[in-house]
Amino acid sequence: MKLIIAIIQPHRLEDVKEELYRSNVNLLTVSEVLGHGRQKGVTEVYRGAKETGNLLRKVRLEIAVNDDYLEAAVKAIVKGAKTGETGDGKIFVLDLKECVRIRTEERGNIAIG
Question: Model pTM greater than 0.90?
């Protein structure tokens, strides 16, 4: 089991979701976050408005997947998020030690779904 954490540009969220759904990855958590990478201080367009500053609006995706879906999920995120410009984001893949479905108390791969 793996936990994928992806930080992407907000305007690419719908494209990433579409690519994930095409790859049969349907379970995700989305959070709005602030941060910056190499593009710090660079103007970014968010919902049609230009913003400049230390912390830029980003979207954080958290996706728990079984190992069989890892590569498809990573490729889907890249395909949906990539513009070729600085600030496209990052993907982090971590080992997921345990998963528990609260409703049924199932554990491990079966709990992810």
Answer: no
